[in-house]
Design brief:
Blueprint lengths: L2 E4 L5 E4 L2 E2 L5 H12 L7 H9 L7 H16 L6 E5 L2 E5 L6 H14 L3 H12 L13 H27 L3 H14 L4 H13 L3 H19 L5 H11 L30 H13 L2 E5 L6 H12 L7 E5 L9 H9 L9 H9 L4 E6 L5 H14 L3 E7 L8 E5 L5 H15 L7 H13 L4 H8 L7 H10 L11 H15 L3 H10 L6 E2 H8 L6 H13 L4 E3 L6 E3 L2 H13 L3 H22 L5 H8 L3 H13 L3 H8 L2 H6 L5 H12 L7 H14 L3 H8 L17 H11 L3 H18 L2 H17 L3 H18 L2 H15 L4 H17 L3 H18 L2 H18 L2 H17 L3 H13 L8 H11 L1 H13 L3 H14 L1
Parallel strand pairs: 6-9, 6-10, 7-8, 8-9
Antiparallel strand pairs: 1-2, 2-3, 4-5, 11-13, 12-13
Helix pairs in contact: 1-3, 4-5, 5-6, 6-8, 7-8, 8-9, 8-10, 9-10, 11-12, 13-14, 14-15, 16-17, 16-18, 17-19, 18-20, 21-23, 21-24, 22-23, 22-25, 25-26, 25-27, 25-28, 27-28, 28-30, 30-31, 31-32, 31-33, 32-33, 33-34, 34-35, 35-36, 35-37, 36-37, 37-38, 37-39, 38-39, 39-40, 39-41, 40-41, 40-45, ...
GO biological process, one term: regulation of DNA-templated transcription
Keywords: DNA-binding
GO molecular function, one term: DNA binding
């Protein structure tokens, strides 16, 4: 039997020439996503992103698992083809050359390796014949759209290579018509035009060849404002000299993956630089782009990452360090970019290296210079311990890490600088053209700005107000040309370019721009007005000024489905901070900034306990960098009150959604605080809860005890009650009776306070305690009351908790209803980005299916659960998940793996679900020697190794 997979056209699988039924579009999309990386595992999250982009369905992992299961059924019995799931994700194994895309690339690669034109032309023709149309035309999601664009570029590159080879083999007359048609379809492609000129000349049509050159030259000048490149000019001269050679081969660009955003402006003038950086990245493991501010390091890094992204199966990930003011946050920033949370018992840097070890990805770390030592330490650790990770960094100076390759980024050449100016000027004045009347003026502007892209873009923004000639004249007479003694001339030119743009602002615009430099990572109108506006100014006044700054390219506007946000580029921000410092306003405005974001956090903390939870989550979380800056300011000022206000507002907003970094802040705030402060108990609760989440129960108990029994005020975040943390420690350490006594008392307190949110929380825990005591029926009244109380609040998290509690007490007596309740609880939590409640709903759903429904599906679901808690970094829940997995494996006959997990749980001081009778049964099933071996293996496992063992066991037995 011969199997063929087709991606270059409609997605198809054929057996002996007959199409197989691969299902509807979404299922074929899953097949295509696996075939693109045939033979390599595709991580689950990455696969979901490919199939659904940013709109995955609720329980997308389950939907994905179902599609994969159906595809397995379709491919059952097909020799040499299988779909498996392992620690790295889903993998489709087959001979890559049965996939037309990989066969195409194989043939193209062979053609490019041979020096015989006729052989190369034949191989490339064979490769191009595999194309049946546009790749996967019915798949309409961004990842595939980007890939389709990249593949079309690969196809065009192969066509161009084939043309070169065929021309080299003397087939000019045969190709003339096809090249002419292709050139008409791509009228600005210089290489294609050069091939057409050669074919025309060699067919005896020299005048047509020269006319073709003049035609493309006019189009390039008219539409791009640039002359033909050196290759095309060389072909033209060769024709004039009656010695026509072949133009140089140029390769297409590759797609990128990860968290890179599409850039709204064109990337111009750095093709050679991209190739040089790409070559360095291929050699790895650390490449640092250095250069002055504004020279284009960030854009070059991003474009190179996009270019080489296809070779990194685990994607390309960008971490921007510019918003950080303290090197201590570098590890957290990198983790945030990767979506990784700190692991139990590990520092953030160790967590990063554990996560990255074994992953094959490109990490772009941008703007290292102001946190150089910390960035160097984190990067050095990654480079040393993660052999498949390549780091591409940008900095004004090298990191100084062993193995670092430093590539200086130079200003643009004259022609490229002029092209950039023209492109950006047209964004402000569409009719702008680089005609002979303005060519000299534009060249002068770019030379005076030393080819620095940022300076050129700032100058181009002035085109809306004056001509290029006027701009050049003003440039000549401005302070742009007067460098400070001893300064780097290029850097001084950039500073002067910014200074010039700054001086062209109105006085109110200057004031606002300078004050906006306080923000870290961006801001919205409300923040700009609240922090920066003078007394008496209205929000409309601030908006008018802000729009003016956007129009003048001093501020970037970022739209979206919610509130518009704004950003000041880091180089401009540094300039603004210098002005602020010189004016002596930094401390005053930084305190206004901190007070504004503390107030925003307090408003958000109250609002997320109501019906508008989702609105406020989406409102506040984009300002996490500003919240961090506000907290650091409070600590620097030793302003305990402000620090406490911040850390007691974040448990609802950040702790359950971003990660546990804010719990560290709470610990630091306690060092400043007077125990008599009204917010002290809530801060203790926030700090203790973070330690509890990481599984350090001894320290959690010690921290919680600092509250000395005091109860936080009404409205405190659900997770920040010290007494609850102590009760939860008891619950998780095997003393549910003590926890039940605590929560029964808290139920009565919540009734007296008429606090429905707190009442739902405490009723939820009463139900949980009864379930743990193996008397779930006793918890039914509390769970049902929780639902009755939660629904009128319209608060998604409260409603999720109540449904979870009811599902928990019903899962033995009414498992089908319990599954529906868990699914609804998970959906509600996910709708407000509450990863903690979403995770426990996923976990209990999997546990219920393991006993009452589908054990094989439960294995797949628990793989998702383990991934979830590993990414979140919550070891309190991960140990519960591992207990469930041990029970599932024991029930499913995987005796040795179950015994190993039992031993790992006992070694970690955690209760095991396997009692003595069950262990005796397992010992009899495998024999004393294998039982002892499994116990020894398990007792040596700890932390992530336990999870890896459980994941492998589930994948094998599921």
């Amino acid at each position: 039997m011969t199997v063929e997979f087709r991606l270059l056209g409609d997605v198809e699988a054929c057996l002996d020439g007959r199409p197989l039924e691969t299902g509807h579009t979404r299922q074929r999309t899953v097949l295509a996503a696996l075939l693109v990386d045939v033979g390599r595992p595709v991580p689950t999250d990455q696969l979901i992103g490919r199939v659904w982009a940013d709109r995955p369905p609720y329980r997308a992992r389950n939907a994905l698992s179902a599609y994969v299961s159906r595809l397995r059924g379709v491919l059952t019995g097909v020799d040499g083809v299988r779909i498996t799931r392992g620690p790295g994700g889903y993998l489709l194994a087959t001979d890559p050359l049965t996939v037309d895309l990989h066969l195409f690339r194989h043939l193209v690669s062979r053609a490019r390796e041979t020096d015989r034109p006729a052989e190369a032309a034949a191989l490339l023709t064979q490769a191009l014949d595999l194309w049946q149309g546009a790749p996967f035309p019915t798949v309409d999601v961004p990842w595939f759209a980007d890939l389709r664009t990249a593949l079309e570029a690969e196809r065009l590159a192969a066509v161009l290579d084939r043309n070169d080879a065929a021309l080299g083999a003397g087939r000019h007359a045969e190709l003339l018509g096809e090249i002419a048609a292709a050139s008409a379809a791509h009228p600005l492609d210089e290489r294609l035009s050069g091939q057409l000129m050669l074919a025309q000349y060699r067919s005896g049509r020299q005048s047509d060849a020269l006319s073709t050159y003049q035609r493309i030259r006019r189009r390039l000048v008219d539409e791009l404002g640039s002359e033909p490149g050196p290759e095309l000019r060389r072909v033209h001269q060769q024709i004039l000299d009656a010695d026509p050679g072949a133009p140089t081969v140029r390769r297409g660009t590759a797609r990128s993956r990860g968290n890179l955003e599409r850039r709204p402006t064109r990337f111009l003038g750095r093709d050679d630089d991209v190739r040089q950086v790409a070559d360095a990245v291929r050699d790895g493991p650390l490449v640092t782009l250095t250069g002055v501010g504004g020279v284009g390091k960030t854009r070059l890094a991003v474009e190179t990452a996009r270019h080489v992204g296809a070779r990194f199966p685990d994607g390309v990930w960008l971490c921007e360090l510019a918003p950080l003011s303290d090197g201590a946050a570098v590890g957290h920033a990198v983790a945030g970019a990767l979506g990784v949370q700190q692991q139990q018992g590990l520092g953030i840097e160790q967590t990063l290296t554990d996560y990255l070890d074994g992953r094959d990805l490109l990490l772009v770390v941008d703007n290292c210079e102001h946190v150089l030592d910390a960035a160097a330490r984190v990067v050095d650790r990654v480079v040393r311990h993660c052999p498949s990770v390549v780091v591409l960094a940008t900095s004004r100076e090298p990191l100084g890490v062993e193995g670092e390759r430093v590539l200086p980024v130079h200003p643009l050449r004259d022609a490229d600088a002029a092209a950039l100016f023209t492109d950006r000027a047209r964004a402000h004045r569409p009719e702008f053209a680089l005609d002979p009347d303005v060519e000299d003026a534009v060249g002068e502007i770019c030379r005076r700005l030393d080819g620095l892209p940022l300076g050129i873009e700032l100058a181009a923004a002035r085109i809306r107000a004056m001509s290029a000639t006027e701009l050049a004249h003003r440039l000549d007479s401005s302070r742009l040309l007067h460098a400070t003694r001893g300064a780097d001339p290029r850097h001084q030119s950039l500073v002067a370019a910014i200074d010039w743009s700054y001086r062209l602002l109105s006085e109110p615009e200057r004031t606002l721009f300078t004050r906006l430099s306080l923000f870290a990572g961006g801001f919205d109108l409300d923040a700009a007005h609240g922090v920066c506006a003078d007394q008496g100014r209205t929000e409309e006044d601030t908006l008018d000024l802000l729009v003016g700054l956007v129009d003048k390219s001093m501020v970037i506007a970022r739209g979206g489905p919610g509130r518009s946000r704004y950003l000041v580029l880091e180089t401009l921000r540094a300039y603004g901070r210098e002005h602020l410092d010189r004016a002596g306003l930094t401390d005053h405005l930084a305190r206004r900034h901190a007070a504004h974001f503390a107030a925003l956090a307090e408003r958000g903390a109250r609002a997320v306990q109501g019906a508008d939870e989702r609105i406020w989550v989406e409102r506040v979380l984009p300002d996490f960098d500003n919240l961090r800056a506000a907290f650091e300011r409070a600590v620097a000022d030793r302003d305990a009150d402000l620090a406490l206000r911040l850390v007691t507002s974040l448990p609802e907003l950040a702790h359950l959604r971003v990660g546990y970094e804010s719990a560290h802040w709470a610990e630091r705030a306690l060092e400043l605080a007077d125990p008599g402060h009204p917010l002290f108990a809530a801060a203790v609760g926030a700090a203790a809860r973070g330690v509890w989440n990481r599984g350090d129960f001894v320290r959690a108990r010690s921290l919680a005890a600092r509250a000395e029994g005091r109860v936080p005020a009404r409205g405190t975040g659900r997770v920040a009650y010290p007494g609850d943390v102590l009760a939860d420690v008891a619950l998780y350490e095997g003393d549910p009776a003590s926890a039940l006594r605590h929560y029964r008392g808290e139920v009565e307190r919540a009734r007296r306070d008429e606090d429905p949110i707190r009442l739902v929380w405490t009723l939820y825990y009463v139900a949980v305690c009864h379930a743990v005591l193996r008397a779930p029926e006793d918890g039914l009244p509390a769970a049902e009351e929780a639902v009755r109380v939660a629904d009128p609040t319209a608060n998604p998290t409260a409603r999720s908790m109540a449904r979870y509690a009811l599902g928990l007490v019903l899962k033995k007596s009414d498992p089908n209803r319990a599954l529906a309740l868990f699914d609804e609880a998970g959906r509600l939590a996910a709708s407000v980005r509450n990863f903690w409640w979403h995770g426990i709903a996923l976990m209990e759903s999997a546990a219920t299916r393991a006993v009452h429904a589908d054990a094989a599906r439960a294995c797949r679901d628990f793989l998702d659960v383990l991934d979830h808690w590993e990414r979140v970094g919550d070891w309190s829940q991960q140990w519960i998940a591992l207990r469930y997995v041990a029970r599932l494996l024991a029930r499913g006959g995987a005796a040795e793996d179950a015994v190993a997990l039992h031993a790992a749980l006992v070694a970690a001081g955690k209760p095991s679900p396997l009692d003595a009778a069950r262990l005796a049964d397992l010992a009899r099933a495998v024999g004393d020697e294998r039982y002892a071996d499994a116990t020894a293996i398990g007792s040596r496992l700890s932390g992530s190794a336990v999870v890896a063992h459980a994941r492998a066991a589930l994948a094998h037995h599921g």
